[in-house]
Amino acid sequence: MSVLASSMAVASSMTGVTCDGTAVHGRFESAAGGGTYQAVTFDAKAVPAGSRVVVLESTHRDGTEIELRLHGLQPDRTFGAHVHQKPCGTKPADSGAHYQDVVDPKQPSSDPEYANPDNEVWLDFTTDGRGNGSATSSVDFFFRAGEARSVVIHEHATETGPGHAGMAGARLACVNVPFG
To answer: Are residues 97 and 85 in contact, defined by beta-carbon separation less than 8 angstroms?
Structure first.
C-alpha cells in the first residue's frame, strides 16, 4: 500500500498566512485480513479494497480545516463521515466515539447541543457516478493532543434531531490520521 503521512506547512499566497497541518494519502484494505493498515474497509461494496482516500488538516489562527477526498467508492451514494477519537482497528467500533470539542458527559452522544457540526467535524459527502466524493469542514477549535486519531466513513448522512444527532449509521471504513 502506498501511504504518505507527513506534517506540512501550507502557505497561502493570497493572504500570506502560514498554516500547519497533516496530510494522509492511502488505499483502503480489507479489515478481514487482520493486519494494521492506514485505511481499512468493513464493507467492500460501499468502500472497495483499493479505493483511495486523502485527508488534509490545516490549522490557522482561527481554528482547523479538514478536507476529505475519496476515489473509487460506491457511485451515486451519500455517506456520513466524522473525526473519531481512536485509531482504526480490525473492528468498526475500534475507532471510538466522535471527537468533540466540548465533550458530552453522556456517551454515546446524541444531544444536538454536543453532537453538531460546530462541536464535531462532520464531513458528509455524496459520490458522483465514478465513486468520487469530497467534503471540507472548518471549525473554530483545535484538536487536543492524541484525542483525534481517525476519520470514519458511515452508511448515510448525519442526522441532526434530538436523540439521533450525530448518528450516521454503520461504520463502513476508517482511515488513521495523526491529527494535531
So the answer is: yes
